[in-house]
Amino acid sequence: MTGPGDNGGNGDRPGSDTRGGTRRKVLYGRRKGRRLRAGRRALVENLLPRVEIPVPEGDAKIDPQTIFPGPPREIWLEIGFGAGEHLAWQAARNPDIGFIGCEPFINGVARLLTAIEADGLDNIRIFRDDAGVLLAALPARSIRRVFVLFSDPWPKTRHHKRRFISPANLALLAQALDSGAELRVATDDPGYQAWIMEHVLASGAFEWLARRPGDWRTRPADWPATRYEEKAVKAGRRAVFFRFRRLPPAANGGV
Ligand SMILES: C[S@@+](CC[C@H](N)C(=O)[O-])C[C@H]1O[C@@H](n2cnc3c(N)ncnc32)[C@H](O)[C@@H]1O
User: Fold this and answer.
1) Close Cβ partners of 220 (under 8 Å, ≥ 6 residues apart)
2) Hey, which of 25, 31, 109, 152 would you mutate to test ligand 1's pocket, going by the most ligand atoms within 8 Å of its Cβ?
3) Which residues form the domain of 191?
4) pLDDT tens, 90-103?
């Protein structure tokens, strides 16, 4: 993937602020890009309010079982879905699953809305803020699968603390994921790859599901390529596809 410098543009800069009385965390990325075309603007105005999960006030929780048309069999979450092609693919093939997509970048959200409308997907809900805020508001053990695909690698050492895979976010993931739930993480950055493995395993909450190199070097059939993966491949970089399982807290010293 390209570097985090891409996250400059004309969008909002990192910083914490307040909206509706709710404190938001620092977000390292942009919320807006180019002006939306009329069709996408119309979707943001008319469809987004029907599928958006509002940022909860204060310590309020989100009950994911109540935000879909019917009670879903499981809740899956994609963090930083970009243009949403992986999320739309999963949602179309798993109609009994409720999907939460988290993405602060409105241009990406607008692209996902296009797919939601075109494919008649009624099992996607969108959270347009920092995934840390969302994870903190989800009930314990409410999520069965999480996708974190090509999150920004922040290659400069002084920026490593901005990486999404971090001890703080892993603790939030561990509390939101049910025992046995799956965490899928992809990256094309070798430094971030090593960091992800080290931090996920050090959290004590997850085990790595790979048994042989092909398990992480080859993308599984139920895991479509994203735009960032395609960019990486074109640029001659290799991606890795990690699958971890949430361990039962009792099996791991209560973590
Ligand atoms: C490099 S892009 C990858 C997009 C997509 N997953 C793909 O593979 O094409 C990283 C995405 O994560 C989003 N992002 C960055 N920080 C985030 C955060 N704290 N919470 C949720 N999404 C975030 C960005 O807006 C961006 O769309």
Assistant:
1) 241, 243
2) 152
3) 4-12+24-252
4) 999 999 999 999 99
